Every structure is written in structure tokens, then in C-alpha cells.
Amino acid sequence: MPTALEYLPHDKEQRAAADKAFEDARALMEKYVKYYQGKHKAHFKNSEDNVVINLCRIVVDAIVDFLMPQMPKIVINDDGIVEEAEAYLENIWVENGGANFLRRLAQIGSIYGHVFVRVWFKDDGKVNLYPIQPQNVIVFYDPDDHEVLWYEQRWSSKERGKKVEYRQDIVRQDGIWLIHVYKRNKGVGQWEKVETQEWRYPISPLVDWAHLQAVDRYTGESELRHAELNDQINAVASDIKAILRHHASPRVVGFGFQTGEVQETAINGLWTIPNPDARVEVLQGVPQLDAAQKFYDTLVQSFLSESKVVLLPSDIRQFSNVTNLGIRATYLQMLSKIEVLRRNYERGIRQICRLIGLVNLGTDLDVQVLWADALPTNMIEQLTLIERQIGLGLMSRQTASKILGLDYGKEQRQIDIELLNDTGNGFEPSTGVL
Questions:
Q1: How many angstroms separate the CA atoms of 318 and 380, rounded?
Q2: DSSP 8-state symbol, 312
Q3: How far is CA 193 from CA 181, 342, 431, in A?
Q4: Which of 217, 264, 23 is nearest to 135 (CA)?
Q5: Of 72, 121, 125, 75, the residue nearest 94 (C-alpha)
Q6: If we measure between CA atoms, which residue out of 169, 194, 195 comes closest to residue 183?
Q7: In the chain, at which end, N or C, are there fewer CB atoms within 10 A of the end residue's CB?
Q8: What's the rounded Cα separation, in Å, for the pair 299 and 276?
Q9: Cβ atoms of residues 156 and 182 within 8 Å
């Protein structure tokens, strides 16, 4: 993504930087998508010996599964119409796909490294959330503090049989955003301004966040930044397959006779040789592949380690007697990474919820995102720990409800109703006696 100090819509250097940024983004996205789809480089010209083990897809899918096992719970910490606002936000997310929508964002972020969501407010009060393909948006940012100066989005359409290219600049200015729309004939001519609109909110209608923070730029890091290593792994696997195909099959060797001396008999499958000293042996090739297999395993583990992905063992019974702590220790590296990712995605989710609150509810909501646990847990252990923390005064019942995924207000109302019903039926709740 290019850097800038100020918005100059017709500056030649900025236009050249924008064109190059779009070109680079599209090339990078095309490369990563091909790796994810398993379209890797072939090691041999002869396809019979080529092996493609798509670790790129395995890594991305594992990250998405751990990051978004289910729809996170959105909680508002403000006083006032909390329950109504929470229900309103939940309904908007559900209407836009809920967990599936967030999984799609996580997939895009894992592949490309950055996420863009357009928040569209309709006249009837509904809100549509659109994931924007990263190759269609660039960000101009301040090189010192990485603050966004403006977003530039491009798309094409046909008008009167000609391809027309549109460009929308969403520019930060004095606490609000100006939305400028330009158009030109596809790839040629000057950009001509079509319209300008004011977006009088502190949050842009285009919300973005990095999948993984990069050290030296605004754009985030992809999970496939080391995808070329997958080609090397496939090359080693292909070499092993070629060796096995050419040398592992048994060979029949004859000693003490000419090929013409071998006589077929009437007995099915029986051949005879007149020379009593002749013999036939079957040689079984045993290629020494231990070193090659070890090298292959090392490469695979290096690929997974760079992504901090831990794969489930083939025999799930290994976890049968393991405690919550033991399971988490096994997945510690991956859980630490998922925690980092969730902080990044929580920022984006909070920005979207805040913008919806500002536009449709007239208030800036203090939103908290509660994530589901990606790993199975022992409920007895969890309940015992929560009970002790409540007993020691370290945790409220409301917080405990949130941890367990329960709606505290709703559950309290249901408990009160049950108590009233039980009392009306002659049941004494304190003693359990009718």
C-alpha cells in the first residue's frame, strides 16, 4: 500500500503509485488463491510422478476453524437500552450471514492478509455488510503513524458498449470523511469527478483491519507468505514417489538359461526349463528412503511451525484422559496466535458495530466481543473453577454467565418466573418441600 502526506487526486506520482499498488495486489491475490486451490508448481514434466500435498489449504482452513468456531457474542457495556441494542446488532449480523460471513472474512484475511468490509445503510433501516475483495482496494496512509488518509476502490462497468472504470476515494478530513467518485474510459484518459458526498461520522463506511500486523507496512500478513515452501515439499514427495515407482516393484531374474528355453505348459501359469541347474528368483527392491522421509517430515513441520498451526493427531484416543490444561499445552502455540488474530478481528467487528450504532441508533456503543473456545473443554472442570471464583468474590454471576455463553438478564427473568410459579403451587424453594 502506498504512503502519502496529503490527498492530491490528480497528482501524477500518487496516480502512478496507485496503479502499481493495484497491479501488485492483484498479482499477489492471484498467486495466493492458486496456492489455496492446490494449483502448485509441477516438479516433473511427467504428471505420473507429481505429488501435490496442499498444506496451504490445510493451514488456512485450520486457522479459520480455530478463529471462528462459531458466531462470537457481541456485548454492549453501556448503560441504558443494552438488551435492545444487543438484539438489534445480533439481528444485523444474522441477516448478513452470521458465523458464515465472519468465516468468509477470516478466509479472505488468511489468504490475502487484510480484510475490507463495506457497511451499506439502506433507506428502510437495514444494514448490508459486503466483503470487498482486497485486490480492488488500496489504502494511502501516513508513513509515520500508519493512520489511514484515504481508501481508493476501483471497479468497472459497461456503458453504451464501452468499458468504464470507476474510482471511489474515501478521504479523511477534519473528523469526517469525504467520498469522491471519479470515472474514465477503461485504462485511458483522465479521471473525471462524478460526485462528492459527505460522510459525517468518525468511522469510514469502508472498515478494514489487518489479519496479522506487518512490521513495515499498513497491509497485514498472509498465512501463505511462505507458500513457496509447499512447492519444495511437493518436490520431495514427488521424488520419493518416483523412486518407489521405478525401484520398489519386484523384478524376476533368471540364471543358467536362455529366454528361448522357457516352455509354456498346459497347466495354467506353469513354465518349464530343461536345464536342471537353472533357477528363477524374484528380487524385491528396498530403496533406502529413511533420510528422504525424515527430510520431508522436517519440511512439513517447518511449514506448519511458521504458521503456528498444530494438527490434530490421527488417533483422537490420545486425548481421552487428558485434562483441559494438557490439551491447551499441546495447542499452546496455536492458541497464542489465535488470541492475536482475535484482537485484530475484534477491532474490525467493534468498528462495524460502532458505526451501526452511530448511524442507526444515534449513539457510540461500547462493544465487547466474546469469543467461543476453539478447543473442547471439560465442563465439570470449568464449572468448578467458576464456582470457586464466585465463592472467593473474584467473579460476578453475570460474568460467569457470559463465560458460559448464557444471557444473564434473560436467565434471571426465567428464574424469577419459575420461583413465582413454584411458590404459587405450594412449593417452598428454600427447602424444596411442598
A1: 20
A2: P
A3: 6, 39, 77
A4: 23
A5: 72
A6: 194
A7: C
A8: 54
A9: no
Match 484518459 to its residue by C-alpha cell: 189
Residue 405, phi-psi category: left (phi > 0), alpha (psi -120 to 50), beta (remainder) = left
Where would I find the H helices in 128-264? Answer: 228-247
Instruction: Take residue 266 and report the three cell numbers written for it.
Output: 498346459
C-alpha cell at 134: 482486497
Encode the chain (434 residues) as per-residue pLDDT tens digits: 789 999 999 999 999 999 999 999 999 999 999 999 999 999 988 778 899 999 999 999 999 999 999 999 998 887 666 788 999 999 999 999 999 999 999 999 999 999 999 999 998 889 999 999 999 999 999 999 899 999 999 999 888 778 899 999 999 999 999 999 999 987 677 899 999 999 999 999 999 999 999 988 999 999 999 999 999 999 999 998 888 877 766 777 888 888 878 888 878 778 888 888 888 887 666 567 888 899 999 999 999 999 999 887 666 666 666 666 777 787 888 999 999 999 999 999 999 999 999 999 999 999 999 898 877 666 777 788 889 999 999 888 888 887 777 878 888 888 888 888 876 666 555 554 44
All three cell numbers of 360, joined, read: 442507526
Give the distance, in angstroms, between the CA of residue 176 and the centroid of all CA atoms in the same chain. 31
Element (H, E) at 337: helix 332-356
Within 10 A of 268 (CB to CB), how many other CB atoms are there?
A: 5
The x, y and z cell numbers of residue 109, run together, are 484475511
CA 383-340-369 angle, to 5 degrees, is: 55
pTM above 0.85, yes or no: no
Cell of 411: 436467565
Residues 6+ apart with CB under 8 A from 34: 40
Bridge partners, residue 154, by sequence: 167
